[in-house]
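Example for tutorial group B:
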């Protein structure tokens, strides 16, 4: 697969522009070297930093504000890079735990989804900013506990499968496990599940480590029995929360598979 570079103009100023003038990331193919990859990731990081974070001591960056992202730039930038390198038109995105909506906004800027679905209990103090942050994003949301029957009923009612599911809601061991086990049924074949806080959170890490262990048995010929593949693991240099991506080779039951 060829590497890519991009021209992007969605910094702090552009963030306030109307959707008519706001530019999406543009991708140019065929630049092929590790050096160029590093340069692109650094460029990506700087673009992400310009969008603003929720809390400087936790996430680093330049300023608190903008999209109030709750991600560390040198974790989320290579994660986005690798998913772009996968070179697939991802259509539907599901985020469990969106808070101010910064991460939903960010992913949509890079992947231009058909639709983004959010499940969030609106207990984060900045949840009220989500509407403004996502004003140009095609999204729908379920407000309530991700572990409730109503959340599952809501997703069932949408009749969608997802190419990417981002899990960043309840950070207890039981909570993150339940989110994974509940929502993976809505994943397309070869879809991606992303866990945030997979390195630093003492409850999330053990569950993600179990999946990593399971992923060691992944086999392309036996993937109905061993469907979980480790796709990427991202841990920042100075600040460390951790992002882990798995790709799951399970054909969704009871819904048609629109997957890769
Ligand atoms: C860490 S924040 C999400 C940050 C966001 N993903 C980002 O990167 O900008 C976690 C969010 O999940 C919500 N949450 C926690 N437990 C939840 C649950 N059981 N069901 C739904 N939402 C939950 C919180 O209220 C909060 O809005």
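The residue assignment follows.
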């Amino acid at each position: 697969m060829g590497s890519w570079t991009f021209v992007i103009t969605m910094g702090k100023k552009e963030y306030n522009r109307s959707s008519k003038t706001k530019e999406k990331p543009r991708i140019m193919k065929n630049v092929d070297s590790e050096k160029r990859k590093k340069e692109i990731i650094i460029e990506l990081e700087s673009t992400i930093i310009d969008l603003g974070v929720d809390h400087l001591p936790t996430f680093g960056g330049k300023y608190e504000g903008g999209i109030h992202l709750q991600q560390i730039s040198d974790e989320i930038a290579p994660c986005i890079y690798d998913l772009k390198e996968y070179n697939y038109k991802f259509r539907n995105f599901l985020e469990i735990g969106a808070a101010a909506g910064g991460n939903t906004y960010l992913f949509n800027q890079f992947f231009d989804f058909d639709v983004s679905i959010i499940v969030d209990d609106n207990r984060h103090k900045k949840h009220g900013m989500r509407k403004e942050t996502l004003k140009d994003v095609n999204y729908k949301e379920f407000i309530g506990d991700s572990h409730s029957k109503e959340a599952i009923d809501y997703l069932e009612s949408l009749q969608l499968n997802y190419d990417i599911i981002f899990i960043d809601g309840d950070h207890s061991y039981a909570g993150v496990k339940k989110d994974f086990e509940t929502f993976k049924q809505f994943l397309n074949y070869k879809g991606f599940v992303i866990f945030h806080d997979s390195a630093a959170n003492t409850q999330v890490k053990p569950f993600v480590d179990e999946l990593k262990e399971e992923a060691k048995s992944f086999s392309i010929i036996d993937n109905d029995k061993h469907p979980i593949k480790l796709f990427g693991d991202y841990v920042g240099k100075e600040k460390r929360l951790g992002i882990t991506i798995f790709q799951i080779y399970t054909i969704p039951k009871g819904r048609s598979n629109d997957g890769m």
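Residues 34-49 form the longest helix (16 residues). Compare this with the pattern of hydrophobic and polar residues in the output above.
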